[in-house]
Design brief:
The protein is α+β, with helices and mostly antiparallel strands and about 950 residues long. The protein contains 31 helices and 33 strands. The strands form nine sheets. Strands 1, 2, 3, 6, 10 and 11 form a six-stranded mixed sheet that branches. It has a six-stranded mixed sheet with strand order 20-19-12-13-14-21, with helices on both faces. The longest helix is centred in the first third of the chain and has 19 residues, at about 135-155. The protein starts with 9 loop residues before the first strand and ends in a 12-residue tail after the last helix.
Length: about 950
């Protein structure tokens, strides 16, 4: 029976897990009927469809002709969202992936939070051969949701899934980018309207719903609950405080941990490394599996782990990795795993007994396997100790464990024992009857709670938040925009305060927060003195807001009021609402849960001599038509250094202020060749590397608008050179399309014949080979195949002077190191040059005398740099050869280290590979 028009028939919870996707639901018109699990129809064998509670979050991309049309008889017609022909999802995908390496897409959810790759680019399966179709992490996630939607709509055609009240779960530690990408995946699956709830909360909602009849008795002695959720790809911690108001417990989430790519996948990988070592024993030259084969072995080790850690487990099991191609059987290898060693590796390796004051190891040189940057410290208990240190107060006296790994009793006992040691007393363990499905059921319980039909966890703000008035660093007044304890989902309007908002120009908003008594007492709209209490300054939020008339360039100031809301997923949304027309709203969104933001400290005050510097820039480039001598124009940089100090020490915020001044006076660069040379040089220097500071996206957008006009003084070689230097310096802020546009000019300048050059458009700026060399090496976002072509051109340059070392050769070797680097600075890791090509380049470099040609050793070190990702790393034998040569010529220890192990570049290494130092205060992760 259908419900009233416009009202959903069902409340549906979807757990889009790293390992499995699970769906639960309840009748919206009869909540007392309880929460049920939705059996998802899926392929379980070729030609066989069956309903299963778990849909493995996996895709298999078969080769052409590998599967017959009759092997994929789903009861509904559905095209793959990513356009992959005959893509297989779910149980059959797992089976096929275990048989055929390199065609299985796994852990898409973990990739959603990996900021060093383009998560909307087709990069999965990671490291697969070129002939294997690939999908983006977003599209892969969307395909699982689309499968769920199709299965639901086939079962309930009168109540389509998109018309129901949907709740989708996410890790509590997902940052704003990963949350936005999850919502994008849902929209791709035609599920545009849903709510997000954090997985640890959902797990606890499941407990609350299952135990609602005895909740008082269950929690009467509880004051703080730890929810520890260890899934296939992530680990999440949340704290929930318990108080009693009469008979009913009052629940409030008070702490959320950082994002950790650490879970069951890491355990499977550890076992796979052990089995790989055993399989290689006695084999000449050892055995190093490809990324695809290691992925296949991980699947086998996952099954072995679950078997050996289950109740009534056997003493040992055999893991077999089939051969490939014609050697499918004869090429297979096997190794045994025992119950005792698996328990020791997983329990002691991932849940060691640590002290309460232990701190998790941090760094950027953690394990990178299959391209994913796993947490450097694999000890979940040590991460838990760090988490509890960050959230002061009583240690939790109660724990709820969730995630498939806790099906192993040994892991649950170890975590409970660790917490008990820290407290000096035993803990209460809340029963979780089925960790595989608890999050999906809890998502439905959350929906019921929103309707007042189940207990609810308060997610109100643990802090008061304030908007700083005036300039940060100068004005200590701030207005309270969100009082402590504000309920989630409730919009608060500062109706008694009016603000002036500038449209069409960059604006910056500074926040502060407080948990102190003074700050906590502030009410909405109250003005406080930040110097009179314990307030924490937060990083600024910068944006460019435009009017709704479509005229983006129209700059005007309007009166607005502020409307704020703490969202259900832990972000503060601030809307600027036009006072005269409340339909005009501008959204600013802040992420408030990252500890690194809270530790950011005071905003840096502007240089006290900035005004003098801006006057000098205005004198040269301003619109007043001031007449200055050519010498004064050429000496502008020296004059700025006299005011501000050596430019190498100009911090990034100061550099951006100078760039903004130059941008506002960009027309002044056309007055003479000297003006244009100086403007291009300073603009590029002040905006390098094109990202990393608030508003850099906007600055790059404004700068790119000048590209098609080229230079005014196009016959001046120095002007042309400074033009390309500018774009090389800021290349990190250009997207792929823009970098490809630069590549077109790169190719023309190198390949055009005399006839083509004579007809070149005046806006296509001439560039020397050296200009193009440095530019081409900086284009990290272009496809790897194009980088290989650039590298081939560089090698031809080297071959022309094989017997002598010229400056051009040193430049070519530097560029080759940048083009072929295994670890890009701003580009996506999936666009590096393929390993086979890099190995050929290294063979050519090894033929050079590194004692005489030191840049060759430098280039080799970067081409052989270890990332931990098998799809990017060169083979062990070649790596050993490079290390031996580096040591033989006395190369710097840092070069040897980065080839031997995953390591971060030091300041000198960063300066050399980038071509110049980064601004003080700006650090790239590499």
């Amino acid at each position: 029976m259908a419900s009233a028009k416009g009202q959903p028939d069902y409340l549906v919870g979807i757990d889009l897990g790293t390992t499995n996707t699970v769906v639960a639901y309840a009748d919206a018109n009869d909540p007392a009927a309880g929460i049920r699990l939705f059996e998802i129809e899926q392929l379980v064998a070729p030609g066989e469809v069956a309903p299963r509670t778990l849909l493995p979050s996996l895709r298999f991309h078969p080769a052409a002709g590998e599967l017959a049309a009759g092997d994929l008889p789903l009861p509904w017609l559905q095209q793959d969202l990513a356009g992959v022909d005959q893509a297989v999802l779910g149980t059959l995908a797992r089976q096929l992936g275990g048989q055929v390496p390199g065609r299985l897409v796994a852990s898409a959810k973990s990739w959603l939070s990996h900021v060093n790759v383009d998560r909307q680019a087709p990069i999965l399966p990671w490291g697969a051969d070129p002939d294997v179709p690939k999908v983006s992490p977003v599209a892969a996630s969307a395909s699982y949701l689309a499968h769920v939607r199709a299965a639901w709509n086939h079962r309930y055609p009168q109540a389509p899934l998109e018309a129901q009240e949907l709740v989708l779960t996410i890790p509590a530690s997902f940052d704003e980018g990963a949350r936005a990408l999850t919502l994008a995946a849902a929209r791709m699956a035609l599920l545009p309207s849903l709510r997000l709830v954090e997985e640890p909360q959902a797990a606890f909602y499941d407990f609350l719903h299952r135990r609602r009849a005895t909740l008082h008795a269950d929690l009467v002695n509880t004051r703080r609950i730890l929810v520890c959720d260890v899934g296939g790809g992530t680990t999440d911690f949340s704290l929930i405080d318990v108080t009693f108001d009469g008979e009913e417990p009052q629940l409030a989430r008070t702490g959320v941990g950082n994002h950790l790519i650490l879970g069951g996948d890491n355990m499977d990988l550890t076992l796979a490394h052990l089995v790989e070592t055993r399989m290689a024993a006695g084999q000449e030259g050892g055995m190093r599996l490809s990324a695809a084969r290691l992925s296949q072995l991980m699947e086998r080790c996952r099954a072995a782990k679950e078997l050996l850690l289950s109740r009534d487990a056997p003493e040992k099991t055999t893991v077999t990795l089939l051969g490939a191609g014609s050697r499918l059987i004869g090429g297979s290898r096997s190794a045994d795993l025992t119950r005792e060693e698996v328990a020791a590796m997983v329990v002691d390796g991932f849940f060691p007994l640590v002290e309460q004051d232990d701190i998790a190891k941090k760094g950027r040189a953690g394990i990178v396997e299959f391209g994913l940057p796993y947490a450097q410290d694999a000890a979940i208990t040590r991460h838990l100790a760090s988490f509890l240190q960050q959230h002061q107060g009583e240690l939790p006296d109660t724990v709820l464990l969730n995630g498939g790994v806790f099906r192993a009793d040994a892991l649950a006992r170890r975590l409970a024992d660790t917490l008990a040691r820290w407290r000096g007393a035993a803990l209460t363990i809340l029963h979780n009857d089925n960790p595989d499905v608890a999050v999906a059921r809890g998502a439905v319980a959350y929906a019921l709670a929103r309707h007042g039909q189940a207990p609810r966890i308060a997610g109100g703000s643990a802090r008061s938040y304030f908007l700083v008035l005036g300039e940060a660093g100068k004005d200590n007044r701030a207005v309270c925009i969100l009082p402590r304890g504000s309920a989630s989902g409730e919009e608060l309007r500062l109706s008694e305060r009016v603000f002036a908002l500038r449209l069409g120009r960059p604006v910056r908003f500074h926040l502060a927060s407080s948990t102190s008594a003074a700050g906590a007492a502030a009410k909405l709209g109250d003005i406080v003195d930040l110097s009179a209490g314990d307030y924490v300054r937060l990083p600024p939020m910068a944006s460019v807001l435009h009017g709704q008339s479509g005229d983006k360039d129209k700059q005007r100031e309007i009166a607005v009021q502020l409307a704020t809301v703490m969202t259900e997923v832990g972000t503060l949304e601030v809307h600027c609402v036009a006072q005269e027309d409340c339909s005009q709203r501008w959204l600013l969104e802040f992420q408030l849960r990252a500890e690194q933001q809270e530790a950011a400290g005071e905003a840096q005050a502007p240089s006290p001599r900035l005004a003098q510097a801006l006057e000098k820039i205005d004198r040269i480039f301003g619109g007043k038509g001031q007449k200055v001598e050519a010498k004064e124009v050429r000496q502008l940089r020296q004059h700025l250094e006299q005011v501000l100090g050596a430019r190498e020490q100009w911090p990034a915020p100061l550099l951006r202020q100078l760039f903004d001044a130059l941008l506002q006076r960009a027309k002044g660069r056309r007055r003479s060749a000297d003006h244009e040379r100086v403007w291009l040089n300073l603009a590029g220097y002040c905006l390098r590397p094109g990202y990393g500071e608030p508003l850099d996206d906007w600055r790059m957008e404004q700068l790119w608008a000048l590209f098609d006009t080229g230079v005014q003084q196009h016959k001046d070689h120095q002007v042309c050179s400074e033009w390309w230097t500018l774009w090389r310096r800021v290349a990190g802020g250009l997207n792929t399309e823009q970098q490809l546009r630069l590549l077109d000019d790169f190719a023309f300048n190198l390949q055009a014949d005399a006839a083509q050059r004579s007809s070149r458009p005046v806006t296509l700026v001439n560039g020397s080979d050296d200009d193009m060399l440095r530019l081409g090496a900086s284009l990290e976002r272009i496809p790897g195949a194009y980088k290989a072509e650039v590298g081939a051109w560089l090698l031809k340059r080297l071959e022309k002077s094989a017997s002598k070392m010229e400056a051009a050769d040193a430049n070519s070797l530097w560029a080759l190191a940048r083009v072929g680097t295994r670890q890009p600075f701003h580009g996506s890791a999936h666009e590096v040059v393929d390993v086979e090509t890099v190995a050929q380049w290294l063979d050519m470099l090894l033929a050079l005398d590194w004692k005489k040609v030191e840049p060759a050793a430098f280039a080799a070190a970067h081409l052989a740099r270890m990332t931990g990702d098998r799809s990017r790393d060169i083979g062990d034998a070649l790596r050993s050869t490079v290390i031996t040569r580096l040591k033989a010529v006395g190369a710097p220890a840092a070069w040897v280290t980065m080839v031997q192990e995953v390591a971060q570049l030091d300041e000198a290494g960063t300066k050399r590979i980038l071509g110049e130092a980064l601004p003080p205060g700006l650090k790239l992760i590499s």
